[in-house]
Structure formats: C-alpha cells, structure tokens
Amino acid sequence: MEKNNWKQDFPQQDDNFYYFDSAATSLKPNSVIEKVNYYNRELSSNINRGMYDKSQKATELYEEARQKVANFINANENEVIFTRGTTASLNLVARAYGLENIAENDEVLTTELEHHSSILPWINVASKKKAKIKYIDLKKPGKITVEAFKKAITDKTKVVAINYVSNVLGYITPIKEIVEIAHKYNAIVVVDGAQAVQHFSVDVKNLDVDFFAFSGHKMLGPTGIGVLYGKESLLDKINPIEFGGDMSLDVNKESFGWKVSPTKFEAGTMPIAEAIGLKAAIDYLESVGLEKIEAYTKKLYNYFYKQVKDLEDIIIYNPNSDTNIFTFNIKNVPSHDAISYFAEKNIALRAGQHCAKLIHDHLKINSSLRGNIFIYNSYQDVDYLIKTIKEAISYFKNLGF
Amino acid sequence: MSNLDNLYREIIMEHYKNPRNHGLVDNSDYKSNRIKNPSCGDDITIQTLVEDGKIKDIKQEATGCSISVASASVLTEIMIGKTVEEAKEIVNAYLNMVTDKEYNQTIDLEEASVFSGVKKFPARIKCASIAWVAFKDTLE
C-alpha cells in the first residue's frame, strides 16, 4: 500500500480521527498556520496605510498573495479581488453586475446542481428585476452536458451561473465549451469554482470565463478569505457594492469617487493574515503538484469505490465521481441517523443537503451523506471508513431501520 | 450501554416505525405550526386542538431522521388530555433535558424520558427538539 507522504504536514489529524469532510472545508498544513501566525505575531499592521516598516511588510505580503493567486489561475493582478469566500464573491457579481444589467424578461441560466451561494443571489436579482431563472436539464445521474446547455440557452439569456464541480456529485462541468457558446449569445458566464481549484489547474484566460469564484478554506488555506476573478473589461464597468476606507477617493460632503480594481472592491481592513495564509496554501499545493495529488487521491477513491459500490444496502448517487466526492445513503437510514454512527467512530463526513437542496429534490431524496478523499487521506483511513460503513449497515439493520 | 445504544432505544425505534397521530387534518379549530430545518431536511408540522384549556387532540406529520419523527410521535401521545399549563411545563422540562440543562425532575416526562440519550449528541438536539418547539408555539 502506498504511503501517504503529506499526512504529517496536517496537525489537525491524529491516529484516531478520520477526516473525509474536505468538500466542506479542508485541513490546513503547518506552513499555512505558520504564515497566519507570523502575520499576527510579528506584523499585525494594516496594509496600504502605515508608513512604518511593519505595515510596509504586511502590504508587500498581501500583494504577493494577490500575485500568487493571479499566477495560480492565469489572471492579471488587477483582476483578482479578495473577498470573504466564494459566497461573497458570487454575491458581489450578482449585486454589482446583475442588478445593473438584468432587465425584465431576461433569463439567468443555471442548474439544479448549484450550491445555494451560486443560485440564491440570482434568484434575488431575478425577483427584483422580474427576470427569469431557467434550468439546464441534467443528464443522469446529474451531469451538465453541452447538448443540454445548447438547448437551454436563448437570446434572452444574459447570465449563466454555473458550477465547475458540483459540491454534491463531484462531476466536472464542460465550462470551456459552455463559455464559448454563451458568448455567441452575448451572455456572461459566472463560475463557482469552489470545488475545482483544489483538484486541477484552472486557467481563466483559456476558459475565457467572465467571473470565477473560489474559497481559500477548501484548498488548504484559512477560512475568511476567498477570491473573485473578473475580466478587467467587466470589472472596469461595474461599481463597488461596499463603500468605506481605502477604496475611496476625493471624499466630499456630498460625493466621493473610488479607485480602480481591485482596490475599489476591497473596502475596509481586509483579512490580511488569511490572504497571506492563502498564498502559503497555494505554495503547498504547487510544491506537491495538483496532478500528483489528483493521481494519488484518484487511486484511493477507486480503491474505496470498488469496495463499496456493490454493497447491498448502499445507494451511491454519483458513480465514478470526477473529483473523489462520494455521496450516498444507507438504505432506509436517514442521513442524520447514519452520521451519528460515523461521528461516534471518529469519522468526519457530512449529512444533510450540503447547501444544495435543489439537487436533492432532483434526486428525489431528503438528504444524503457526503465524503471526499483528499491529499491527507491514507489507505488506512479508507480501510477504516469501509469497515465502518459495513458496521453501520448492520447496526441500523439490527435496530430495525 | 454505548452512547449510540442509549440514543436508539427500542421505544424510539417503535415510534419511528409506527408514528402515532400521524396525518394532518383540514380543520381550522386546530392550531397548526410547521418547522423546517433546511440543513438536514427535517420538515415537521404539529396541529393542536385546545378546548377549555385542555388539549383535546394533536396531529403530526414529520419527515426526517428517526429521532425527529419519533419525538413528534411520542409528544402527541403524552400531551393529549393534558391542560395547556401542564403541557407547557412538560415541554420546558423536556427541552432542558435534551440540552443537558437542569430541569424540574418532579415533572413526569413519561415515555419522552427515553430521549435523554440525545444530550450526548449535541448535533442531534435539534432533531429531538423540533417537534416540541413547534408544539409549544401552537399553545401560544
């Protein structure tokens, strides 16, 4: 059995805790924790404001983080806006772009696979503007296809709000093809990349996406930091949604102006330590290599999937997931009953609807259990998970479920 | 007994599989209250008929985990026939019991005492409380 060379870098783990909830949030390696602590311990100064060394240093590190993110997704630095996370990024687009550019009877095209953060901001825009939300038909067991997208898009489509990887089913959306078609209809494409960037390299220029959002905390980084990428031409056109310190210019009693992107979108003191921590997370991912991580976790996922797929009392909703996310139920056992069993056995999974109710409605289920295999999981972890799933099945069967 | 075995007591399983007073009525004399828990998909409606300060009837419809379904069922059995004042006291004692707070031990929780195992599972307290909170509001 292949040894896991990275587990030791993640101090949250011990021999008696099995973490499979990485699609909710990832563990953090020592290097990230050290960087966050370094800022708080040594600098703790604001950026863009102080004239003293520590503030200069903090500003430098913060902007280095932006540069790192820009390189990571192949964007320009002024196209990288730091936010609180994917949710804040997607809300920024809906409010700053959507509310200004969507009119009555326009259409926003999306899917039932979306995380609530990718769809609720647009339902809000649509209801305010009397626009329509339309859904792309999903292909069993829940995939977005170019064919279905072609059928759904119309001349009225102004925005396509879509995930790159579903947080429930883990399938990869053909974003590049979708963007190409959307642009022929003059629609912009807003991509929720929260489950993508930690699995494979993303090149926003090559994809030609208009907006792309992701979070630090699902890619080994800290919570409270996220990214919104926007094309420069679009960011120039849209106005900030938050007003305050640092973003403003020419403040008078009756009026004010603002700086250019990205500063105009970053009002107030930003999560500086977290941005610096995000850079450390990207450094870590790059030092190992996304392809290497994916090759290892894919092997582990296949090893897991082969052993559970034919268990009689398991229903897996996403066979052959693209990104090692597995979503399932034990037959006749509500997910919240099952999750208590796993929690008692020190296994971290997630139960419920995973902030994606519509896909549960689509699958005609109330809730599900979700897990994800990531860089720090070992063959031993997976063996223990499989053993515990089997034990859970018989435990609940004996209880009479 | 393990924490899990203490949670999944026989009585709870029995109510989960055969929920009492199940099915809603279309009668405006009943005061109705529905609570959904969006994170887990629990969806519980309680209908209460009060006459002369006494609980004449309760109907419930619960979808969700075994604990939420069973706690709705047990609730209906205990509460029918109680006065509104007695019912409120029992609800308060029950909610304190499942959240591991002090409560008046002289109040008889009857079959609902089997839910005491929930206090070892903080993530499941909501499951055990949801029907009871919904019921409490029908008394106001």
In helices, the fraction of residues of chain B equals: 40-55%
The CATH architecture assignment of the largest domain in chain A turns out to be 3-Layer(aba) Sandwich
Q: Roughly how many Å is the radius of gyration of chain B?
A: 14 Å
Query: Overall mean pLDDT score of chain A?
Result: 97
CATH superfamily of the largest domain in chain A: Type I PLP-dependent aspartate aminotransferase-like (Major domain)
Fold and architecture overview:
The complex is a heterodimer of chains A (401) and B (140). With 401 residues, chain A is α/β, with parallel strands linked by helices. In chain A, the strands form 4 sheets. Chain A has a 7-stranded mixed sheet with strand order 2-8-7-6-5-3-4, sandwiched between helices. A 4-stranded antiparallel sheet of chain A has the order 11-12-15-14, with helices on one face. Chain A contains 13 helices and 15 strands. Chain B is of the alpha+beta class and 140 residues long. Chain B has a single domain, classed as Sufe protein. Chain: A (Alpha-Beta Complex), CATH 3.90.1010. At the A-B interface, helix 11 of A face helix 1 and helix 3 of B.
